[in-house]
Every structure is written in structure tokens, then in C-alpha cells.
Design goal:
heterotrimer, A alpha/beta (342), B mainly alpha (265), C mainly alpha (264), A: 342 residues, alpha/beta, Rossmann fold, Alpha-Beta Plaits, 2 domains, six-stranded mixed beta sheet, 37% helix, 28% strand, C: 264 residues, mainly alpha, two-stranded antiparallel ribbon, 2 strands, 75% helix, globular
Chain lengths: 342, 265, 264
């Protein structure tokens, strides 16, 4: 019977923001203004997390995910509601609470910028008063997972973003925390490094049973790592559940990807229009041009037969290649925002 | 005992690594040291030029003023050596990078300040020591052991006052988002501390004794050695002022840290 | 032309957002003026009214205005350029279809307007109405306008040189502080040049710094300056202005080749 390591109930956070006026005169007025407006960054959310879970927080910018994470990590005091993590109220017993958590930021390192990587680890050993045998065990484990030793003498400022993230991630596991918060860990990384990172986090979670809370824009990472997904928008949770179930709701959806012989960028609108006319749906079939030059269409098989759309395209345009895929979380998320979730 | 040593040991570890890393930038150190020498040297130069035209400033001689100036340099240097990171507070706050300091089981002020150790401060220290020795020699001051202990105590309290004022000034950026102007404002006061308080009228004398106590940074402590007969009770209060002010500064910092919302996703 | 005016406007507006900045800079300036007042009053005590050819009133006004001009011209041009180099965002300005030096100067001008309203005006107010030294006449005020503009131009070019140096060294911390100290000291802004020993006075005469402070200030506090002397001063300023400008054009052409853009 695994414990709930995170218990959050009716959590809210409101901010007072100074109203800013526009233009020249406005700027002068602002010097003396006391006009505030209240922003409900997080509005009455509740959820529980079991030990060892990896859960993903998804949501657009300003949705309230960073605010929630900040409250969970003890930085922000909630306006109302209760929050219990690992037996502590995060913002109340910060120093004690923080001994058992890890935090990793995608954009900024937690390590010491100017000094060699290994020295940062040694400093962490002192800060967390880590027993030598635990320290050695963990360092050995990290080296098994990737060649950390090669980075030992290099100052953190000289590492590439990918290398830095790898170091930050293992550093967060060094003191065997119960729960780790990852905030946008894959931002700016290329696919191969992202994969490495994801495998690393998954392995460490398996070995150490660390609870992991991941926030990301990158639905790919969330899909790869998490079994549970919490979707936040405008301060509220709009979905909390199994990531596969989430996809199954949209299981009728397929993404049809075609590579056409010749195709100019402007023709997308024409294609979109004709598809829309030929195959009318509740919401028009989205037609996009992907970065790799392929055209992708998201089709709801409950409304339209994929076969029919494909036949039509093959008739009108010479096709070089085609793929049929499950819908991506990204598209699902977009659909939720567009109001398609019941 | 082990718990007591936790912070000093940690500090030594962090700072020694930091110095090692910084020593690689020889050219930068060299040039910056020149900058510091010029800046502090300009003060001595000004005194020298002024005393070309006068012989006493409100009853204080040239060498006495050098003594006071050297004392103020020695008092200001610890804030530069150990607390230099205070100057970066507003950019950490504005860019949001300050948030990382909340996540370690460390006292936040300790963690924040331990990240930067300004070795350029050693240059100022060297200049201050040299000027101090010069002045005491010229003034014929004899240094006994008790006098030396007194000197160290007073330097400790003076530097504590400067550090406290700077921390309080910088902490305003937790609320206002910017601190450099306040910091410069307070830092300038440190520079004014090198003049005898007697040049001011009674209003400012009171201000600089009780409200913004820069009188305790160099002038009152120096009087102990230069005019021992004239020393009043106030000077004995220096260590007390130093400790109290630091406690106050720490409380202000804590309040700021707690109230900073870190807005911006 | 219009785009340059936009730069000035933007620079001015971005300064205004930090409401406390001007308050503290103003206050700092005022305290400094108070400091000068007391210090020099003590220096002049028992001196019989005049030292090195200047009365207390003249010296006070001179130094008080000197620091006000220093605050006025403090545009952080050198720091701004160094910051842009270190963070790699200098590219943004380099690829704009404008002359880089002119761009930086317009930024500086925007700042100067801001400084003028927030720091110089209050300081002038305090100097004229509270200390009432009565040394400045309307005539000298008008005469000093052109010298002050030229002084800004020279000051900006010196800042710009330091800024260009950051193309080579990235950080300009020590250099900028050295520059400020040297400029203040050798321009007579900390201590009037009249107080300098003979030899120093001669050396300082060959440097551009006194063209920034000493010249405009002397014009401001003089009772009746001859046309000849006025033109002589303007001539000195103009020559330094042109010389520094030319130097910067040359320096820029060299420095731009060295720019390595930071950031992966």
C-alpha cells in the first residue's frame, strides 16, 4: 500500500499586480499610481500523488503550473488551501523540508557555475551531510548510467546545455530525496540528448523510487516519462488521469501524414479549404505543414473515414510517401483547449 | 562542535574552489585591481591636494585624516570581500534566478553570499593597510597588544555597520525590483565616512551618529587612537551598534526573502 | 532621422519604469552636494575668504554643479555595451540599419533627458534656492549651453571608447571605474583645477577631461568672460570633440572585426 506523498486540497494563490498604463503620459502616471488588480494564478486545485509516481504537469504559459510547483517546493505561500508533501507543509518548514527534495530547472543550473563539476558534487555532499558510502554508491550509479567521470574536471560554465542538464539531474538525486521537481528540463535540447535525459530520469526513478513531478511544454517528454497527466489551464485542473486513457478518449483520432511530390507553401490554404468543403466536420480538419515538409491532417474517425480523405488526396496530388499515426498529446492538448474534452 | 563547524567548513570549501576558478582570469584581476587602486588612491590624492592649500581641517592634521581614511578603507573591505554578491541581487531577482537559493537546506543569506568572494578586495585591503601603517608611523602611535585587540574589535564593528547598511539597501529590491541606486547611495555614505564628523552642523552630526551611523565606521573609532582624551562614551558603543545593525539587516533580508513572489513563470 | 528619435524616446521611457532609481540617484546627488558644502566650508574656515583665486561660494557652486553634470552625463553607455557583448545580444544592435555609434549616442541622449529631469533639476533647485550662492548670472547660463552640449559629446565619446574595449575584453569593470575616477579627478570635478600644484595643472591642460567639466563650469561661474577667452574654450572643446569622434570611428572599424558573439 503506497503512501500519498503529496496531498493538496483546495489550493489557491492570488497575486496583486500593478496596472501598467501605456504611452508617455501613462508612464508618468504610473510613477504615482497605486492601481492593482488581482490575478488568480491558481484557483482551488486538489490532487494526490503516490510515492514513486512520475506525473506530468502540462499547460500553456501563465496557466499556473509554475505557481503550483513553487508552492509545492516551498517557495510560495498559498493564499488558501492545504498542501502536505512528505509529511511537511512546504513553506512552513523550508529548511527541513528541502533536505528531502530535489529541484531541477531547465534553464538555470543548481551547480556552481565557475568550478569543476566534481567539486560541485563534493560541495553538495557537505551541504546535505551525505554519508560517504551513500555518496560513493550514487556516484557509481551515475557513472553506470552515463560517462559522468568525463565531465568531472570541467567547469559547469563550459558544459553544453545537454551535459549540464545531465549533471543537474544526477546532482538532484545525490542526496536521495523523496521527491524531485523537474521544471522544463528538456527545453532547448535536441532529440538525442532528450532521449538520454528521459532514460536517465526513468532509470533513476526505477532504482530509487523517487517521486517525480515534471512540468513541461514538451508533450513528447511527458508522454515518454509520465503515466499520469495533470492538465492545468487558467489556474484550474482540467484533466487529471492516466495519460493513455487521455489519449484513448481521442483514440478515434488519427494523424495522417503525407509527403507530396511538389507542393508550395501557399497551397496549404487551398488544400485546407477543399478538405474542409469535401469533408465537413464539427470542427474543420486541421491541415498543417510540418518542419520536415510533410503535410499532416488530424482526422476524427468517428466523423470521417480516413480512407476517404486519403483517396481524395491521392487523386488530386501525387503522393511520395504516407504515414498513419496515433494522435499526439500536443494535438490532444490543443483540442482540450478548443473545448473538445467532455 | 561538528554542527558549529558546518558553516565555516562549507564556506571554506565553496570559496576556495571559487578563488581557484577565478585565478584563471589573471588579466581581469590585474586590470580591476588597477581600477580599485585608482579609485581609492584618488581619495588620498584629493587629501594631498587639499592640504597643499591648508594646514588643518577643523583642527585635524593631514596625517590624522590619512589615518581616518585608511581606517575607513579597512572597514569597507570586508563587505567587498565577503558580501560582494549583494550587487547582483537585483539582476537575480529580475531574471528569476534568485529562486534557486530557496531549495537547499542552507541559510539563504549564507548560500547567496558564499557564491562570490571578491579577491579584488585584497588590493583595497593592501592599500588600506599600507596607508594605515604610514599614518600611524607619522603620528607616532605606539601599538601595544591591548591597543591592537581594540583596533580589531573596532574594525569588526565598523565593517559590520557597513555590511548591514548595504544588506538593508539591497533588500529593498525584494519589493521594488531594483537595488543598484540604493546600494550606490549607501556605498557613497561609506565613502563620506572618511571625513571628521565635526565638519557637519549639529543636525547632520546627529544624523550620521544615530540614524545612518557612518560616524561609527571610521571617525569615532579612530578617535580612540588619535585623541584618546576626547573619546566619548559613544565610541564604546561601536561594537554594540555593529551587532544590533546586523541583526536588523538580517531581519529585513528575511522579510524580503519571504515576501518576494518571484512573479514570471 | 525618425528612427533615431524613436531610440531616444524608448531609452527615456525604459528609464522611467524604475521609479525608485531616480529617487535614490537624486537623493544621493543632494547628499553629495551637502557633503561638499560642509567639507569645503571647513576647508575655507580661517582662510580669509579666498584660496587659489576662488572664494568659498565659487568653489562650492563649481563642485556642486560638477557632480550634477556628472550625474547628467552618466548614461552607462560603456556598461550597456559590455553587457550586450557578454550576453551576446549585441548582434541585435549591430544588424540594425543604423550607425552603431549614433545608435548608442541616441540611447545616451534619452538617458540624459531622464537624468536632467530627475536629478539635475532637483539639484539645481536646491543649489540655487537653498544655498543661494548668487554666482550664476543669466548671461553665463546662456553662454554655457553650447559648452555643455559639447561636453556631453566628449563625455559620450570617452564612454564609447570604453564600451568598444569590451569588444575585446568583455568585462570592463575595472576599466570603467578607472575611467570614472580619472575623468572626475583630472577634470577638476572633485577638486577645482586651481587647487592643483603647478605641474599637474599643466599636464591636465593637455587632457580632454577638463573640457567636460572645467570649461563649462568656469564659464558658468565667471562674472564677465571676454569673447576671446570664450572662443578659446569652445575651440578646445571642439578640437577634443572632433579628435575623439575620429578616434572612435577608427576604433570601431577595428573592434567590430573582433566581436565574437557569446551564447550557444
Amino acid at each position: 500500500m503506497t503512501m500519498n506523498i503529496v496531498k493538496i486540497e483546495s489550493l489557491s494563490k492570488h497575486f496583486k499586480i500593478l496596472k501598467r498604463s501605456e504611452g508617455f503620459i501613462g508612464a508618468f502616471k504610473d510613477l504615482f499610481s497605486r492601481d492593482y488588480k488581482i490575478i488568480k494564478a491558481v484557483d482551488n486545485i486538489s490532487f494526490k500523488v503516490q510515492e514513486g509516481e512520475i506525473i506530468g504537469f502540462l499547460g500553456p504559459n501563465g496557466a499556473g503550473k509554475s505557481t503550483t510547483i513553487k508552492m509545492m517546493s516551498g517557495v510560495l505561500e498559498p493564499t488558501s488551501g492545504s498542501i502536505f508533501i512528505n509529511g511537511y507543509i512546504p513553506y512552513k518548514d523550508r529548511k527541513k523540508y528541502v533536505k528531502n527534495i530535489g529541484v531541477v530547472f531547465g534553464q538555470r543550473t543548481q551547480l556552481w557555475w565557475e568550478i569543476p563539476v566534481i567539486e560541485s558534487f563534493k560541495i553538495l555532499k557537505e551541504i546535505y551531510k551525505i554519508e560517504p558510502h551513500i555518496y560513493n554508491e550514487n556516484m557509481k550509479l551515475f557513472n553506470e548510467l552515463f560517462d559522468l567521470k568525463a565531465l568531472y574536471p570541467i567547469p559547469v560554465r563550459k558544459l553544453s546545455l545537454g551535459q549540464r542538464m545531465l549533471c543537474d539531474i544526477v546532482a538532484s538525486f545525490l542526496h536521495n530525496p523523496k521527491i524531485i521537481f523537474f521544471d522544463e528540463p528538456t527545453i532547448g535540447l535536441d532529440v538525442s540528448v532528450k532521449n538520454k535525459l528521459q532514460i536517465l530520469i526513468k532509470d533513476l526513478n526505477k532504482v530509487k523510487k523517487t517521486t517525480i513531478i515534471l512540468t513541461s511544454h514538451d508533450t513528447g517528454s511527458v508522454e515518454a516519462l509520465c503515466r499520469r497527466l495533470i492538465l492545468i489551464d487558467k489556474g484550474s485542473i482540467i484533466y487529471d488521469g492516466d495519460i493513455l486513457k487521455f489519449n484513448r478518449i481521442f483514440g478515434a483520432y488519427r494523424t495522417l501524414k503525407v509527403e507530396l511530390e511538389q507542393f508550395e507553401g501557399s497551397s496549404i490554404e487551398v488544400l485546407s479549404k477543399t478538405i474542409g468543403e469535401k469533408f465537413p466536420c464539427k470542427l474543420p480538419i486541421p491541415v498543417r505543414k510540418d518542419d520536415d515538409g510533410w503535410i499532416s491532417l488530424t482526422i476524427n474517425q468517428d466523423e470521417v473515414k480516413l480512407q476517404d480523405v486519403l483517396n481524395y488526396i491521392m487523386k488530386e496530388y501525387p503522393i511520395k510517401d504516407l504515414k498513419i499515426e496515433e494522435i499526439e498529446t500536443e494535438d490532444v492538448v490543443r483540442k482540450v483547449y478548443e473545448g473538445e474534452l467532455v | 562542535m561538528k554542527r558549529f563547524l558546518y558553516y565555516p567548513r562549507l564556506y571554506t570549501l565553496i570559496v576556495s574552489q571559487y578563488i581557484k576558478a577565478r585565478m584563471q582570469y589573471r588579466a581581469d584581476f590585474f586590470i580591476s585591481s588597477i581600477g580599485i587602486l585608482l579609485e581609492s588612491g584618488a581619495g588620498f590624492f584629493s587629501l594631498w591636494v587639499i592640504f597643499h592649500s591648508i594646514s588643518k581641517l577643523v583642527g585635524w592634521s593631514y596625517n590624522e585624516l590619512i589615518f581616518i581614511y585608511a581606517f575607513s578603507l579597512l572597514a569597507i573591505t570586508p563587505s567587498q570581500l565577503f558580501f560582494d554578491n549583494i550587487w547582483h541581487l537585483s539582476s537575480h531577482i529580475r531574471q528569476g534566478t534568485f529562486i534557486k537559493y530557496y531549495f537547499r537546506p542552507l541559510n539563504m543569506m549564507f548560500y547567496y553570499m558564499s557564491e562570490v568572494f571578491d579577491i579584488k578586495g585584497f588590493t583595497k585591503l593592501a592599500l588600506g593597510i599600507a596607508a594605515f601603517i604610514y599614518a600611524s608611523f607619522k603620528l607616532g602611535i605606539t601599538w601595544t597588544f591591548p591597543k591592537f585587540i581594540l583596533l580589531l574589535t573596532l574594525l569588526f564593528s565598523s565593517s559590520s555597520i557597513m555590511i548591514s547598511l548595504m544588506i538593508m539597501a539591497a533588500s529593498t529590491c525584494f519589493w521594488t525590483g531594483e537595488a543598484s541606486s540604493v546600494l550606490i547611495f549607501v556605498f557613497k555614505f561609506g565613502e563620506y565616512s572618511r571625513y571628521p564628523l565635526t565638519i557637519f552642523n549639529s543636525f547632520f552630526k546627529l544624523l550620521f551618529t544615530y540614524i545612518i551611523p557612518i560616524g561609527f565606521v571610521a571617525f569615532y573609532p579612530s578617535k580612540f587612537f588619535l585623541r584618546p582624551m576626547e573619546t566619548n562614551i559613544l565610541a564604546y558603543l561601536s561594537p554594540v551598534a555593529g551587532i544590533l545593525l546586523f541583526v536588523l539587516a538580517y531581519l529585513v533580508w528575511k522579510k524580503g526573502v519571504n515576501s518576494w513572489t518571484g512573479t514570471g513563470s | 532621422m525618425k528612427k533615431y528619435l524613436m531610440i531616444i524616446r524608448n531609452s527615456f521611457m525604459s528609464s522611467i519604469i524604475y521609479r525608485f532609481h531616480f529617487f535614490y540617484t537624486s537623493l544621493s546627488n543632494v547628499f553629495y552636494i551637502i557633503m561638499i558644502y560642509f567639507l569645503w566650508r571647513a576647508i575655507y574656515k580661517g582662510s580669509g575668504g579666498s584660496i587659489n583665486g576662488m572664494t568659498f561660494n565659487q568653489t562650492f557652486i563649481y563642485l556642486a554643479l560638477a557632480i550634477s553634470i556628472f550625474c547628467l552625463f552618466k548614461t552607462w553607455t560603456d556598461w550597456g555595451m559590455s553587457y550586450e557583448i557578454i550576453n551576446g545580444i549585441i548582434v541585435i544592435n549591430l544588424i540594425k540599419p543604423m550607425d552603431f555609434q549614433l545608435l548608442e549616442m541616441c540611447n545616451a541622449i534619452g538617458f540624459v533627458f531622464y537624468n536632467f529631469i530627475t536629478v539635475t533639476l532637483p539639484a539645481l533647485f536646491i543649489i540655487i534656492f537653498i544655498f543661494q550662492p548668487g554666482v550664476i548670472t543669466v548671461r553665463s547660463l546662456i553662454l554655457s549651453l553650447l559648452p555643455i552640449v559639447l561636453a556631453f559629446f566628449i563625455s559620450f565619446n570617452i564612454d564609447y571608447i570604453i564600451g568598444l574595449t569590451s569588444f575585446y575584453t568583455e568585462s570592463i569593470w575595472g576599466i570603467s571605474i578607472a575611467k570614472d575616477t580619472i575623468v572626475l579627478l583630472l577634470s577638476g570635478a572633485l577638486i577645482p583645477i586651481n587647487f592643483f600644484p603647478e605641474i599637474l595643472r599643466k599636464i591636465v591642460g593637455f587632457l580632454p577631461f577638463q573640457a567636460i567639466y572645467h570649461i563649462p563650469l568656469t564659464i558658468l561661474i565667471s562674472k564677465d568672460m571676454s569673447i576671446y577667452e570664450y572662443l578659446k574654450f569652445l575651440g578646445i572643446q571642439l578640437s577634443w570633440a572632433i579628435a575623439l569622434f575620429a578616434l572612435n570611428r577608427f576604433y570601431y572599424s577595428r573592434a567590430i572585426k573582433v566581436v565574437t558573439v557569446n551564447g550557444g
